[in-house]
Every structure is written in C-alpha cells, then in structure tokens.
Amino acid sequence: MKREYVLQHKDRPVAELTYDFDFNAATSFKALDEKRLPLSLPPHGARGINDWIENRSIPTTRKGFRELMAKAGAASAREYLLFNLGLSLTDCYWLRPKDEPLTWGGVNLFANREWSDSLVRARGGRSTPDASLSGDQEKYWIVCGGEICLMKFGDGADGQQCVNEAFASLVHSRQGFANFVQYGLTAVRREGEPISRTACTCPLFTSENRELISAYEVYASRKKPNDTSVHEHFISACAALGMDQKEIRSQLEYQTLTDFALTNTDRHLNNFGVLRDPDTLEYIGPAPIFDTGNSMSYNLPALDDRAILKIKTPALGATEAACLKRVKDASRVDAAKLPTPEDTREFYIENGVSEERAAAITVNYKKKLKLFKDFIRTGSIQGAAGGINHRL
Ligand SMILES: Nc1ncnc2c1ncn2[C@@H]1O[C@H](COP(=O)(O)OP(=O)(O)OP(=O)(O)O)[C@@H](O)[C@H]1O
Ligand SMILES: [Mg+2]
C-alpha cells in the first residue's frame, strides 16, 4: 500500500512524499519550501527523507523494542512513527496524509495532551509523542503538575544512568552554569513489577515557539572541510546560521570540560544542539545541556591509570583527551567547585547505588579529577598510557 504525505512545519507545507508501506520506505520526495526543510535534508531524492524518518523513529536497539511494536500493532518503528503523524515534542515538523485536512492546532502534542493519561502508551493511534522519542534508554513523556516532562529509566538494576543525570545537574548548579536541564530522581513501581525502579525526570525544554535542532542537523547543514575538526565545524556552522559564535563556543567548551570530569562517553551529535524559533526560523542559541546518563563509569569497572586515558568518545574526538584538545579556555569550569570523591560516593549510595559500584565510580572519578586539575593548570594531560604524554 502506498500513501501520499506532506511534510509540514506547523501549518506550512515543506515537501511532498510517497510512502510505500510494503517496502517500508519513501519512494518519492519533492521539496515545496527549501528554506524550511530540515537542515540535513537534500531537496531531491527519497534517500534523505528515509534517513530523516529513520532518525526520528524509535531505535531498534531500544530496550523492549519488540514488545512495544507488538503492543502498538506496528510492523516497524517507521510505521509506528507514521501512525502518529511523525509528531514530536522536540520540534514542529510532522507528516500529514495528503488526503486529510488536519491542522497543527488540531494535532500538535504540546497543546493536545490526550496522550498524557497513562505511562505506557503503546497503542497505535495519533496521539503518542513516544513514537518519535529517540535514544536507547526506556523512556516516556509524561505530564506532571501540568508540565510536560521526560521520564527515563536506567539499564541496570540500580538505575545508575538516572543517578548520573541527577549528579550532572548537581555539578552544573554548583558551577553556577544555568543552561542545563535539571533532572530529578523518583522511584516508580509499575503494574506487574515486584519492586520499584529508579527513574529520572526532567522538564521539556522545547515548546511550540522553541524547537530543538540537533548538532547533527547543524553539522549536516554545510560540508565539513577535511582539515576542520567536528568541534570547529559545528561552531562555524552555527555562526553561518546566525548564532553568536562566542556563546556557542563557550557552551561547547564548558560541555566538553564537564563531560570529561563526568566521563560522559555518549556526547554524540544528537545529544546536544541549538534552539530555533519555528515561526521566524531565527536561531536562538545553544540548547540546554541534556543526557549525561552514560557517564560516571556506568558500564566500567575501576580502571588503572593507563586505562583511564583510553576511554572512547563518539563524536567530538576519538578519545576524551582528543575532545579536551579542542578547548581553548579551561577556566570555564571551576575545578574547586566540582564535588569531592567522598561527596560523590555518598551521593551515589544515598540514591540507591550499591557500595561496590559506588566504590568503582569513586576510584575512577578521583583519577579523572586529578587529570582535570592537571589539565587546567598545565594545559596538558600527563598520562601513563603506554608512555604516551598526552600533550594537548
Ligand atoms: N527535556 C527535554 N526536552 C526536549 N527534548 C528532549 C528533552 N530530553 C530529551 N529530549 C529529546 O529526546 C531525545 C532522547 O532523550 P535522551 O537523549 O535523554 O535519551 P537517551 O536514551 O539517553 O539517548 P541516547 O541514545 O543518546 O543514549 C534527545 O535526543 C532529545 O532530542
Ligand atoms: Mg540521547
């Protein structure tokens, strides 16, 4: 079965496409309004729109993916997304079946909150924002005290990734840094589960007037010269879109520095971005820092001095040391205000992490803190990794 869709930005038609449900892919695509296309989308050819739809869909690696698709009655994550009109709570794009006279006012998830009545909304239909919720961790949009919030669960029994989010929030507030999403911890016991699990929640930072454009989209908006780092390319792409280069650099460097201290191994290009006004298309500035869950050695044992320097990172450099190399002003983070190893151990134990895990977290954090302070003092990391001096 084939169906015609219009890619909409609120009530503005942006492109037309044909979706073939038998092949589970768009087979034709035509831009109608090039300036409103998602930045990564070429104006012609179906390949770009298929990548865009795939990136907007739940990843197949999501915990409980098969059960979710079965409950939703969807054959695939893409189909689930299309059942839900491609709507999202992070931006104002959606996919309107061409023969249906739907309006943004009638369908958007910010204002129409029928989806908010239960935690697990696996049914098909046109009202769940979870069909476009990316990322591997189990998570749901909820409405709490009248506010839309994201609720995330961790992978392991102790919910360490959630505690990490709360710890990162503590770090940012102690630094006096304002542009981050505040995560809180909660215990959730769901029907059929014998015990409660740790979850974290944070308020929605997007709205009908502020949409998130991921760093990936910004990155893809212009060609990266071979001799330019991802870090510098992102900054110059932001500047080309009209943002204040100094402000972008300042936040990116702060983020890289705190990610190093927190050993965040997941700062990929969909884990930071910028905010845009969807009506005027004006770029506002860096989005608040979010998603620091995969940090604080959540999947690592206590490491020795050599191994601690080899931790891999996904986008802004191959290793943590390579990411730090891009930072021009290390004074953006005040090392004296970072939690001490002992405070850190207590924080994790108080929030339900086992003593054994808390010990491994603290051993690694203590080593990172020392390296971090060395870096701020000398501009280099003196490492024992294979005798390599990580001069930056
Ligand atoms: N508070 C928020 N307000 C608006 N959008 C958000 C918020 N938190 C997360 N998002 C969006 O939801 C996506 C998934 O959330 P998040 O990155 O926290 O999940 P994750 O499972 O940890 O992801 P990953 O695959 O990076 O591990 C984000 O990439 C972002 O687009
Ligand atoms: Mg993420």
SSE layout and pairings?
Blueprint: E1 2-9, E2 12-20, E3 25-31, H1 46-56, H2 65-72, H3 77-83, E4 93-97, H4 104-107, E5 139-144, E6 147-153, H5 160-175, E7 184-188, E8 197-203, E9 211-214, H6 215-220, H7 230-240, H8 245-262, E10 273-276, E11 283-286, H9 320-324, H10 341-350, H11 355-378
Antiparallel strand pairs: 1-2, 1-4, 2-3, 5-6, 6-8, 7-8, 9-10, 10-11
Bound molecules: adenosine-5'-triphosphate and magnesium ion.
Structure description:
By secondary structure, the chain is an alpha+beta fold. The chain folds into 2 domains: 1-106, no CATH class; 211-387, Phosphatidylinositol 3-kinase Catalytic Subunit, Chain A, Domain 5, CATH 1.10.1070. Helix content is 31%, strand content 17%. The protein has 11 helices and 11 strands. The strands form 3 sheets. The chain has a 4-stranded antiparallel β-sheet with strand order 3-2-1-4. Strands 5-6-8-7 form a 4-stranded antiparallel β-sheet, covered by helices on one side. Strands 9-10-11 form a 3-stranded antiparallel β-sheet. Strand 7 and strand 8 form a beta hairpin. The termini are far apart. Bound molecules: adenosine-5'-triphosphate and magnesium ion. Adenosine-5'-triphosphate is lined by residues 90, 133-137, 139, 150, 152, 181, 202, 204-206, 212, 266, 270-271, 290-291, 293-294.
